[in-house]
Known about the structure:
With about 160 residues, the chain is mainly beta.
Amino acid sequence: MKVYSHDFNDGEKMPERQVFNGMGYQGDNLSPHLAWDDVPEGTKSFVVTCYDPDAPTGSGWWHWGVANIPSTVTVLPQGAGSGQADLPEEAIQTRTDFGQSGYGGAAPPKGETHRYIFTVHALDVEKIDVDEGSSGALLGFNVHFHSLGSASITVTYS
């Protein structure tokens, strides 16, 4: 499986368009374009996540979760997680660690460099049992039991 973006490449610095607007930052808080191909046989849906393993919480920080993306969809346009482009009708954005559903951009503590891992997961079921109030941990738990494969892009921000 492969994932790519028109907004950044693996290993690059996250553009200001994808940085949070708040907590001392003035980014655009715009979810990135993501596309994927070479998906595993038997894929029935996708989940997209963005996770910061470097957050000083003891458990990282969930920046984005989108579940129940139909297997016929292989692109999320820029802004889909920010209300500026359409998500598939069946898709559900789960709660981030900012406390609400939808994309929440990079916002590391001043002076720190963090990694932001955008992952597309291929699942063997059409839907998983999550809603807009579900945490990133619950989303990940459900993904774990239905994963056929995944691909990631990691960017940094400081």
